[in-house]
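FYI - complex with 0GY, inputs then prediction.
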Amino acid sequence: MDADFLPFHPNPSKPAFVPPAGAVDAHCHVFGPADTFPYAPERKYTPCDAPKEKLFELRDFLGFDRNVIVQATCHGKDNRALVDALKAAGDKARGIASVGMDISMDELKEMDEAGVRGVRFNFVKRLVDSTPKEVFLTIADKIAQLGWHIVVYFEAQDLEELLPFLKQLPTTIVVDHMGRPDVTKGVDHPDFRRFVDLMADNTNVWSKVSCPERLSVEGPHAYSDVIPFARTLVETFPDRVLWGTDWPHPNMKSHMPDDGKLVDFIPHIAVTAEAQQKLLVDNPMRLYWG
Ligand code: 0GY
């Protein structure tokens, strides 16, 4: 792994918050192990191995029932570690893959059998080289035929430029980590209002209200500067929000979050039992197991 890569927390605390029965961690990854599933040559970072067994152990420890495993950029378009984890999890996991425009319908159908339900389009410049929009549109047309959806990852300052492209996508769109707002600017800043407007105007757009540890400038474990952003989305769009740990938290530099503390963040952003049930069970079950 890279010298500055922080490994995942070795012994997270048991959360005080008990998730509702059937809860889904809708954003997490598996990395390697590299001797079985090598990292992609084009990767921008080399992580520590974070194998499926560790993920499933964490799922059970935190009180969750299911995972949505998202292909991370360190594995490029080689989805073997993802598919291996999905097959091992049985019905307890679904996946989001990364594919190229030359992927065949047969290959997509094989991934569908394993539990893949979408693809990820990544626009974060430190993670990937840029991909022409036409390539993404070709992939979108193919995966739409299977009823899959598209997960997009971008930074808040890039949303304005991406808007016309997002409006062309023919499927449900799930935005990672609330579109990565700069939380020092506040919820009323035009950047976050643009994201709220995107969701208000386009009922096919969902958001993961995840990654307070990445967005917070306040520092480890309280993450209270992120609460207003996540609460705004949970309260305005209760049926289109998802939550995930982001385990094993690649590229965290400031600190490594305690996954138990991340679970304890949930009742601060979804304050009623009804909102928690939608966020953790009803919404992910409808999108990934429906
Ligand atoms: C995340 C965030 C990051 C990394 C990736 O695919 C990835 O490599 O998603 C990041 O560095 O912000 O969602 O895991």
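The chain has a mean pLDDT of 97. Strands lie at 24-28, 66-70, 93-97, 116-122, 149-153, 173-175, 205-208, 241-242.
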